[in-house]
Amino acid sequence: MAGKRTRAGKLMALSPFIQSYCDFLLRNRWLAAALSLLICLSISAGALQLRTTPDNRVFFGESNPDLKAFEMLEAAYREGNDVLIAVAPGSGDVFTAPRLSLLRELTEALWSTPHATRVDSISNFQHSHVIGDELVINDLVPNGLPLTEAAIAGIRAAALAEPALGGLLISPNGRVAGIAVNFRLPEKTPEAIREIVAQLRLLETDIEARYPDINIYMTGNIMLMSAFDEASVDDMSVLIPAMFVAIVVIMTILVRSFAGMAAVVLLAVLSSMTAVGVAGWFGIVINAGSSSAPLIILTMALAYGVHLVTKFLADFGSGWSKREAIINSVEFNLSPVSLTSVTSAIGFLSMNGSDAPPFHDLGTIVAIGVTTAFLLSFTFVPAILAIMPIKKPRKRIFGQRLAVTVGSFVVGHRRWVFWTMSALIVLLATGISRIELNDDWVGYFDQRYEFRHDTEFILENLTGIDLLEYSIAAEGEQGIFEPSYLAMLDRFTTWLRQQPEVVNVQSLSDVMKRLNRDLNGGGEKAYELPGERELAAQYLLLYEMSLPRGLDLNDRVMVDRSGTRVSVMLRRDGANLPSKELRPLAKRIDQWLARNGDTAREAQGSGISLMFAYLSERNISAMLVSTAIALLLISGILVLALRSIKIGIASLVPNFVPAIMGFGLWGYLQGEVGVAVSVVAAMTFGIVVDDTIHFLSKYLQGRRELGKGPEEAILYSFRSVGTALLVTTLVLVAGFLVLATSGFKVSSSLGLLTAIVLALALVADFLFLPSLLLQFDRVAKDVAGDLEVLADANRFTELPGLTLRVQKYLERIRDGHPLRGRPPGEDAIELWSNDYLSIGGHPQIVRAQSDLLRGNHDRPFMSAALLAQKAPIRDVEKKLAAFLGVEDTVLCQSGWCANVDLLQTIADKDTPIYLDIYVHASLWEGARMSNAPVHPFRHNQPDSLAAKARRHGPGIVVVDTVYSANGSVCPLVEIVAVAEQYGCLLVADESHSVGTYGANGEGLVADLGLSDRVHYRTLSLSKAFATRAGLVAGPARVMEFFRHEARSMLFSSAVMPHEIAGLRATLEVIQSEGWRRDKLWQRAAYLRRRLNELGYNVDESDSQVIALEAGPEQRSMQLRDALESAGIFGAVFCAPATPQNRSLIRLSINSALTDAQVERIIRVCADVRDAVDLETWPSTLRRRNRRKAKKEEALAS
Questions:
Q1: Residue of 564, 731, 1080, 1157 with fewest CB within 10 Å of its CB?
Q2: What is the C-alpha to C-alpha distance for residues 607 and 611, in angstroms, rounded to an integer?
């Protein structure tokens, strides 16, 4: 095979490489498919080696300063791997004998939990008191103690008064008690955590079974890591199957081909499996942050497959052979898909710049998957399409018509679209200012996770879960016993308890004050720090010797006594402290220490909560650098690939815009971003570029290879890739929306914001990019549409006759349409409106309409005939009848309805109709629909009318009093005479004379005193009346008949009440403000005279309509462009509105024109005469001949 077919059936040469490659691939399609499957399945076996981890510390890189500080603190004291278990009775408090016994039992049982190193509760709290001269330290609820009422009262009082317990292990009201368990984890953290949690769940089940009135709740770092593990498993085991089902459904609907869907789904599944296998072979550990990688790969691979399959199906359904369609799809997509795979891979690899290692893994795995999808798209997919039996598509692929319609709309409204999109971008971009960096690690999990439910209960009823820890250094070894150090530590502890966010502080200063009190008689006055270093050292030694094993102070005091640990538990209004509040608190503490900390001025806060609080901030800072590098790389690739600096730079705008709009919208909707959202800009940039590349590649192909102008190239791009872009975006958005359903906020936020950005990317590529290109790349004139677009569409929307007519029309306007000029600028003079009296927007008229709209809720959404007798309508009809001097009038929906319905009503197949050939098209249509014999007569020629009437007998004569196209005035007196002579009815369309002729604007008929001799009058009220309605005027008897028999009166809704109110006000304005007519006629007469002096043929009429008749359409377009370039805009009239080669520019004069504007019009018309070849116009030749004939007649007389 030597090439590919075009739509005309001819062959176009393929590149030798693609031709050879495709021939080889299709010839060996079974081998290619089998090898692809074998390689992918072999690599995917690495998934068996894949490991997962629940460790939440994986979100922090080895160089993360917060992680380093946390690990240093753990090395100095103990690990911060804890579980807090809340024991909550159904009613009452915990201070009863059975419940205290349970706390004692549960505390003992928890010591046997795997890897447990310490258990603290109110039952084993080391309570110190003095018996005689002896210091006694033992459990607050010791074994063997009879739990009498007196003993329980003492336990209650001691527990609630102890600062170390309140707000941590006992609630202020005593209703909930806590048990804190600390663990030292071995190297194999994932297995250890699962072992611990499994044991705790068994214990929970046992307790709740034996004590039905007791509820157990668990939180803490171990439970958090378990929740991360659960979220990771859920994302991989639930969302991926859900996505797979969604893919099958969506692809079947969109592609409308089972085989096409199967090819795309196989591509996506193989790409995802291969990438996960590579991750397994290279030892990448999956965690909650990277577990969404398979889902993202599925979605990305779908996008690649859709481009190939939709192009294949489109060509296959167009009559190409299967082989030709496959090869053409490969050739068509190879360059853009190659480019997009590179940019997408760069975008995802840029995530390696993140401060969170899980996103390194996520970006790397997805980049591998994207690359695999690219390779399989041009190996496995063509082969499997060639193998599978595929029926030719009977239905249009989803979105084909929509894409073409959007393209035509953008081309036709380019400026409006450009500025509207620009305004929308700016509006959404302002939402970025509303965004706050905030991570709430409890909120990472939704209510389907037990961790979230338990943690919220503990927050509301017991204590906080955000722990800030400080190592407060002393001056050297044994320095903690210095009175100055202890005093500073006590001040720090006191200040911390005064902060509104703090619910509990654990500090050595409390222990020292309690010991000093108990060793000095037990009085509250002695609750102060020991005053001497040696005394403090003796107190602490005595205390430690009395503590049981496992409850020593090594978690509070460094071994060399050079520092102590201060633990600060935080909570705000029964909820955990969000990172946006935690960061300022940490800074306040740092500032206090810097001012008052003496030896601890450099102390740095630490803790899991604080680490997460700073993660988003650090992540965004890190991602800015990597994103900038990715943008530079992708931008350079685009410029090189597109071979145009101008287009390449222009393409960057719609690539940036989606992220800006998406984050702005996120700011309005959510107002917060966390660690996951911080990588979206870099990740989506590579995906967004995909659509831009596909669109631009076809745009440049249209411009460079097919010689199309910008507008035609835009339409060619929409036809070529619009459908694929629409389908791929829907698939991508659907995929990420599935991810958005994750119960893990890191995944759901990533999915939702990415879906938003990708949806906005489609909007940008469909609306903003084309309008931007038309601003950057202006060459050529507007055209009505792209021939290939409509030729492609006609298979579905046209029958042969229509196709022929459309083709002729498109060929005729190939070089531009007369009606499509440039849009007017701010200083343009617009002379295309029929608002001759300039009353559109008149305050009196606007007020009348708005008053009625505000006060009247009666909406006549029904046939006009049903409202014929309604008072407001009849009142206005009577006023209009009196104004025109007729018996009755009927309001219609438009002037078209009035003309069509009147002739249908008063004519029949036996009644000839005589029409001036220049009457409005609606009168021609009415005559045709009446089935009456139609006999046109020459324009404004009473003799021609007489000849027709003499030959065909009495009938209906139809004229315009002022003809809209050229402004000529009907010789009405002579026409009336002929009509009366031959017994004809006379219908006059007064659309362009009522309001402008007559003393009060009553029209030409009344002005000439012919009201009784013109039988019927019609008018469109959208001219001098500047509103939307039509009118029929005539004898009352016939008007009553018309009101209930005319088709539009029966089958079209009535004129709206506010329009009727406006008509009433308009009538008053027209009658009372005669100066408007005076000014109109003054301007029209002066302009006509001056244009006549310049040589324009405008002396055939004296109305407010001035026609510059250039003749052939090309000349009218030349005149239009010349006038519009100077800011003068008239209405172009061409066939079928005028006879062939009698096209013209109509200047509709209005009373608002200033003297300066009139002079400007004259000056422009004078300047363009040579440019438009005025002397060669047919109308100029007629003017010259007419003047010559007059001179000869004068000489002869």
A1: 1157
A2: 6
Euclidean distance between CA atoms 1136 and 205, whole angstroms: 87
Residue 1101 sits in the same domain as residue 1050: no
Q: Which of 634-643, 661-670, 957-966, 1114-1123 has the highest mean pLDDT?
A: 957-966
User: Kindly report the CA angle at 364 between 362 and 369, in degrees rounded to 5?
Assistant: 95
Tens of pLDDT along 861-894?
Answer: 666 666 656 678 888 999 999 999 999 999 999 9
Exposure string for 825-862, b = 16+ CB within 10 A, e = fewer: eeeebebeebbbbbbbebeebeebbeebeeeeeeebee
Together in a domain, 654 and 732: yes
CA atoms lying within 13 Å on the CB side of residue 425? 21
Give, in order, the Cα–Cα distances in Å from 350 to each of 347, 354, 632, 753, 757.
Answer: 5, 8, 11, 18, 18
* pLDDT score recorded for residue 866: 65
734 and 796 fall within a common domain: no
Cβ pair 945, 914 in contact under 8 A: yes
Across the range 286-303, mean pLDDT stands at: 76
Q: Are 44 and 274 in contact (CB under 8 A)?
A: yes
> Do residues 1081 and 1068 both lie within one domain?
no
Q: Which amino acid is at 644?
A: S
Mean pLDDT calculated for residue range 144-162: 88
Same domain, 859 and 995: yes
Q: What is the mean pLDDT of residues 615-621?
A: 70
pLDDT tens across 418-470, in order?
Answer: 899 889 989 988 988 887 777 677 777 888 889 889 989 998 998 888 889 99
- The count of structural domains within the chain is 6
* pLDDT score, position 858: 60
**How many percent of the chain have pLDDT more than 70?**
88
Q: Which CATH number does the domain housing residue 943 bear? A: 3.40.640.10
User: What are the two backbone dihedrals, phi and then psi, of residue 134, each rounded to the nearest 5 degrees?
Assistant: -105, 135
**Dihedral of alpha carbons 653, 659, 662, 667, sign:** negative
Average pLDDT over residues 1036-1055: 88
Structure tokens at 894: 């438009």
| Residue at 51 is within a domain | no
**Domain end point (choices 170, 188, 219):** 219
- Range 712-731 average pLDDT: 80
CATH code, domain with 1178: 3.90.1150.10
Domain range holding 486? 466-570
Burial 654-685 (b: 16+ CB within 10 A, else e): bbbbbbbbbbbbbbeebebbbbbbbbbbbbbb
> Which pLDDT belongs to residue 410?
84
Q: Is residue 1161 domain-resident?
A: yes
User: Is residue 789 located within the same domain as residue 762?
Assistant: no
Q: Which of 7-16, 352-361, 500-509 has the lowest mean pLDDT?
A: 7-16
Q: Is residue 583 part of a domain?
A: no
> Does residue 1053 sit in helix, strand or coil?
strand
- Is residue 89 within 8 A of residue 173, CB to CB? The reply is no
* Kind and range of the H or E run holding 1085: helix 1075-1093
Q: C-alpha angle 1028/1029/1032, rounded to 5°? A: 160
Residue 586, classed as helix, strand or coil, is helix
Residues 260 and 381 grouped into a single domain: yes
- 184 and 327, same structural domain? no
Give 729's contacts (C-beta < 8 A, 6+ positions apart). Answer: 691, 758, 759, 761, 762
- Last residue in a domain, options 189, 219, 249: 219
CB 559 within 8 A of CB 453: no
Q: At a CB cut-off of 8 Å and minimum separation 6, what does 537 contact? A: 478, 481
Evaluate whether residue 57 is within a structural domain. Answer: no
Cβ atoms of 1070 and 837 within 8 Å: the answer is yes
Residue 9 has pLDDT above 60, yes or no: no
Residue 8 has pLDDT above 60, yes or no: no
For the residues of 803-815, what is the DSSP string, one character each?
HHHHHHHHHHTTT
Q: What are phi and psi of 985, to 5 degrees?
A: -75, 155
Largest CA-CA distance found in the chain, in angstroms, rounded? 153
